[in-house]
Fold Integrase family protein.
Amino acid sequence: MVFVKNYSELLLSVKFSYSIENIEKIKKVNGRKWVQSDKIWCIPNNNNSIKKLVSLFDKDKIVFCDGFMEDYVESMICAVKNELRLRNYSPKTQKAYLAHIKRFLLYCSKSFENIAKDDIQRYLLKQIDEEKSSVYVDQTISALRFLFVDVYKSPDFEFDISRPKREQKLSRVLNKDEVFRIIESIDNLKHRTIIMLIYSSGLRVSEAARLKIEDIDYIRNMIHIRNAKGKKDRYTVLSKRLLEVLKLYLEVHKPENWLFQGQNRECHITERTIQKIFEEAVSKSGIKKKATVHTLRHSFATHLLESGTDLRYIQELLGHENSATTEIYTHVSEKCIGRIKSPLDEIL
């Protein structure tokens, strides 16, 4: 066994059973030194030294002690963070990937070079045992693939982890009366405008929060969604009824850059603030159905489908790259299901 722990800010202590072979190994690490007062070997506290140590003692299990693992993981996370930024991943994806990778590395509690495919599979099985959703497990796999394939490019590591089959869950949808009741429960003009906008245009909450005044096309009755999911721009509809409310909002609040400013007028409203606005509106409306602000987007798509809008147009308005994502709304449409007669009605 080889025990590694923090010795000082710049050094790591390395403790192992005495043998001439082990002494020869430690001497091959650049910058190593013997500290006579503590009778212990020390190596520089950096990734190169750790990699060298692991390669030399590959037949022994290296144990990291005294919070060293946390520091080691943080140093690896920095490299991942830089690579995510260079590849222009969205802030949400960056945050999710970093969290998944950090949890995995702390779970393994071993140097990166000693991590094997079995470690990944055990970690994923642990998530399944904890009843994490298939979407969560799938994102974990994507994050770990990024770590092993894109960041550290391990030549001897074949990342061929199978992905879980996703649950076929139907999107929760509000009917038109419920949407009306939610909107009517909001007295604040700014809050009402935000919720009306999200529903009437099928926006993601992040898209609504980051809209600028210049994104509203009053001539063509369109809204320009910039740099949306997948780093793509798109246009969606601008409701004539919303336009009236929007003009009043602009006249009263006079935003300067962001359509919906935060408490600091130089910043846009936060996504969490919008979520709270919706939660309070649902509670006030008396609707018992579980719904989030994203439910408005699902409702927008379903109501368009029920009114006869072609699925291809709905796909464009929502910004779905894959038509299969949009087709889920055919399963929740009341119009499609409601016009099917039960065989019992033919018998009795």
About this structure: The longest helix spans residues 68-86.
